[in-house]
């Protein structure tokens, strides 16, 4: 499946979710049994760990369709990139979606620029460049920072050597999930 075809499936699933008419595809016992021999997800989704942001639900997808990495603030480190590289190199997945969301607590914790302490600071420090860029824009600072963070993480993934930057047919897109409506806007 091409990245364009994969993105279209995500958009169609999100439209069903927003309309309140999800199909819950590929969730049967037979599907689960079919997947015991392997997987071939059509999209990778890097999203926030926020409990309100469940990619399989908001894109109305089932078992084996999405390769999901979730971490607060949808930030990347070697572990997240390695997971994504695995899906691209070994599962032949052609689409990566970096999904930020409305009212993100990790991005919100980054707005002040103060170190929140403990390991949380390792997350907020990665979001600081997006906050700095968002401060130069008109509009809501948190919303702009969430969108900038998703875009910057997407750009970093697209440029990541050696696998992602050179993978044939791979596309990276960023999105913004609206908790209030269920809609995903691709940026």
TrEMBL record:
Top EC class, one word: lyase
CDD domains, sorted: beta_CA_cladeC (cd03378)
BP GO terms, sorted: carbon utilization
Assigned EC number: 4.2.1.1
Cofactor(s) the protein needs: Zn(2+)
InterPro entries hit by this protein: Carbonic_anhydrase, Carbonic_anhydrase_CS, Carbonic_anhydrase_sf
GO molecular-function terms, A-Z: carbonate dehydratase activity; zinc ion binding
Keywords: Lyase, Metal-binding, Zinc
Free-text comment on the cofactor: Binds 1 zinc ion per subunit.
Protein name: Carbonic anhydrase
Naturally occurring in which organism (per UniProt): Roseivirga pacifica
